[in-house]
Amino acid sequence: MGYRSSEMLIGQDGEKVTILAQGEPTEKAEYFAGARIVIDGVVYCGNVVLGSQAPIESAVVLRVAECDCPRVLDMEGRMVPQVAISIPENIKNMYEGLVDSSVDSCPCGEAIAQMDSLRKTDLFTRLIVERLQRKCGVVESTFQQSDADWNQTMYSMLFRAMGDHRNQTAFQQLAQTVPYYVLSRERASIENVETLLLGGSGLLRRYFGDEHTRHMQENFEYLARKYSIRPMMGGEWTLSGINPNNSPIMRIVQLAGYVSRTDFIFDKLMKCRNVEDIHQILGSGASRASEYWEGHFTPGKSSTKRSKQLGNSKINFLGINFVVPLMFAYGRYTEREELKEQALDLLEALKVENNYITRHWSSHGVKLQTAFDSQAVIQLEREYCEQRGCWKCHIGRSKIKKSLKTL
Length: 407
Fold this sequence. Notes:
The protein has helices at 89-100, 109-113, 117-145, 150-162, 168-177, 180-186, 190-201, 211-227, 248-261, 266-270, 275-282, 312-334, 337-349, 356-362, 371-385, 394-404; strands at residues 8-10, 16-21, 24-25, 31-39, 42-50, 60-65, 82-84, 296-298, 301-302. By secondary structure, the chain is of the alpha+beta class. Strand 8 (296-298) and strand 9 form a beta hairpin. The two termini are 13 Å apart.
């Protein structure tokens, strides 16, 4: 904040305001909770809100802005005291330097690299909790769309995590178009499961290359009538610029293999306690596509013959983006703290991710050893750096606070 404890300020109405305790930052960057102030000799305890644009919520005892602004009422209809303060030029310059810096320059990379292990762990834990809370919102929304069925929720979240990030929404739509109970009735035939998913995705109608493809199309017409399936249009998918191994078609047929060979039981997933458990559930050849796909990446177009199943890096990715969020969300839903703690333990056991964000931070001296670390810097980059949200970032706030101490 732009003032010091015990500093006496003059309110907009001429009242004397003394700051006894600034309070602590909250998840809402504009709010400091637990502040203690004195206004004309009366002590008040509550929240301090920063800036003229922040909404006024309950228990606000003071608003602080850089200039005088129109008076406002709190939720109980009381006038909120407010003071205007000037922001020192060196603070403005330091903050503008952070915001205006290019993402590539990574001005905070050095700050993290120089942190002691305790401070770094505290920072990364905050970022991980933020990220998991956001992912919990996705799980909870999916749970409601799944008629409060955790097996269907698990099925939908697996689909969401399987594809390229550009196809997350399309994969979730496919899980709703062809729900799990339909596949569970046909799982004895991997070809029928493939047909249902490829036909339901709307992608099958794009291909007419060989007898196998034509047979799938005819079979899908029958199965679609049997289960009243209205397929997607097909335009929902992003197909260009994606590695063939990660293409929607390849991931769909691997999902078909997994659903056909695996007892899709939610409780089994919640019992994962280590990386080996995750590989036992998602690996072990369970995702292997049927024989036709050993020689094809797309229908009707031959390729070098090899087994098409999930690799270790993809299983690691699913552990991070499917198992951990689902476990954390279920722990929150059932108020089982041990599940939430287990989800965090799994992040610390899973391998660090290798993507442009993790490579970027590593190149600036930030040591990333596990998925716990990589998920933290992904949260930092996407939710703060890319949004130019230095004012609400833990590191940006720390830099501002450090600069204030030099005044």
